[in-house]
Amino acid sequence: MPHPDTTQPPHPSPASARAPRPAPDVSARPLPRNPYLRLFAVPGTRAFTAGNLIARLPAGMFGVSEVIMISAAYDSYALAGSVTATGLVASAVTAPWVARLVDRHGQARIAVPAAAVAALGHLALLLCAHVHAPAWTLFCAIAPAATTPNTGGMSRARWAHLLRGDAAALHTANAFEQAADELCFMLGPVLAAVLCSALFPEAGALAATVLFLTGVLLFAAQRATEPPVAPRTAAGSPLRAPGMVPLLAVFLATGAIFGSMEVTTLAFVDGPLAGPVLALQAAGSCAAGLLYGRARRTAALRTCLAAMTLLMAAPLLVSGTGSLLALAAGLLVAGMATAPTMVTGMALVQRLTPPSQLNEGMTLAVTALLGGIAAGSATAGWTADHAPSPALGFVLPVTAAALALALCAATGVGRRARG
């Protein structure tokens, strides 16, 4: 990493004051052997990570909180599902544009106002549900929430800036970020359900909004680690990067795995234990992600998808027993391929995307995942209603994983990025 220039005069000129700060240098310090401890030896990383984790926890809270809130006010899960689906679609359309603005103008300048608008949308939805406003107002209120910035992508962009030139450390950082995602989706729904049941139906959504806005403000305040705005290139959209479209197709199929597994599990368990049982998949992914981050060698995307196809069969194989313990164990095993696959896929996105468009490229990957989740959820819902047994729905995640593997093999996207 570059060393700060100690020969500068004590009163730099305005031009030099505006120059991007070099990444902090820790080469003169003894570094811990644990790769995760080495990550946080870099100055400023603990502060931006703490703020980012606070901002990301609500990602696992909003959906559950708003479904509980709307269904309690209007006695309609169909309405609650439609409103949250509308917000998901709006986010998929808006997120890449917000990320493009982040790339062009910087994280703090865009993330803070975008988060403020999104928070107003969530608060408007809460108010509409509280006063039992007409149903159409719920769809209008959720629309501004689509400006939610991709906080996970911005955190990964900071790591890419701070650890540039150190592929091993960046791999560990990407693994940590994926484990953090899984942790948020483990804890978020549980926290939301507890708040809504113990306090009042709107408590989960209100707490999620406060945490989200607070976290973004804390994250954006860490300007020392914010990557400088890279010069724009004539490359156009990241979609034009060779291999990017096939990779997004793989992400789309991968999202279908997650969406179909969630809905199928909820339909199969059909009770209060569904949430804790489903959380075990995220627990398996979190643990595997942390272990993968310590690995000195990384696997190819095709290898990760092949492992995911095999492991996703575990819930299908045990579902015939009718045992919740067996299903919980199967989901724990199935989740173990998730984080390594996502870490490898996001690393490929970083390699394919020009530095000046990194946030937009990673957000496109998240958008593809969201599209796959929506498609997988809808397919699994139809299957749960029409199939003779809910257990048949567990065929869908295996099929989606096999499709993702076939797309990766047919396009050679992993080899293209690695070469």
Automatic annotation (TrEMBL):
Compositional bias segments (type: Pro residues): 1-13
Annotated Low complexity bias: 14-30
UniProt cross-references to InterPro entries, sorted A to Z: MFS (IPR011701), MFS_trans_sf (IPR036259)
Entry superkingdom: Bacteria
Span of the signal peptide: none
Transmembrane residue ranges: 77-98, 110-133, 190-220, 241-261, 273-292, 299-318, 324-349, 361-382, 394-413
PANTHER family per record: MAJOR FACILITATOR SUPERFAMILY (MFS) PROFILE DOMAIN-CONTAINING PROTEIN, PTHR23542
Protein name as catalogued: Transporter
Organism whose genome encodes this protein: Streptomyces hydrogenans
